[in-house]
Prior knowledge:
Layout: E1 25-34, E2 40-49, E3 55-59, E4 64-66, E5 71-78, E6 86-93, E7 95-100, E8 103-104, E9 111-112, E10 119-125, E11 129-141, E12 146-156
Parallel strand pairs: 4-12
Antiparallel strand pairs: 1-2, 3-5, 5-10, 6-9, 6-11, 7-8, 7-10, 11-12
Amino acid sequence: VYNGGTIELENSENNIVSLIPTKDGTLSLTIQITDNTNKKAERTLTFKVDNPPLQIKVTSLENDLTLDRQTNLNLNVQKANYSGKFFFDLLAYNCKDIKIDNTKYSPDSRILLQNPDNTIISLTPSLAGPDSTKIIIHVYDEWGFSCEKQVSFHVNNSDITLDINNLESQLFVGKPTKF
């Protein structure tokens, strides 16, 4: 690890400089070599540093949800040329029983994304209506960059089934009936 200042080269034929940029933009690095006779050579290297955006894909979405019936969706997070960890949190509106990969999710908590390629989010809508239920997914990388994805759902009230049994086909005046 180089922290600035002068260091002695052990092999003047082959030296490796490695670095990890910590922010995007332009990075300039000046290398200056001085020999035993104080002769100097200097070279400035300039690099363009990119920080590719995070990409969130949500798949396996149901078109219409049913009130009080659990649904699942898949979360996929990618970032080109990134091998670090992802973290996420989500805001949920008119949902209950939220689980991440079958583990109960505590609202407003930031957690490590264990499986960025396929994380399963389960939720149960608690209010019927168009766009009545929504989640906002925030994903963060280790460099502090983030992105967000909002998913809204149309929620239908569950169907009511009415079964009538033992219905008499003919009723008589003065005779009680029940069904």
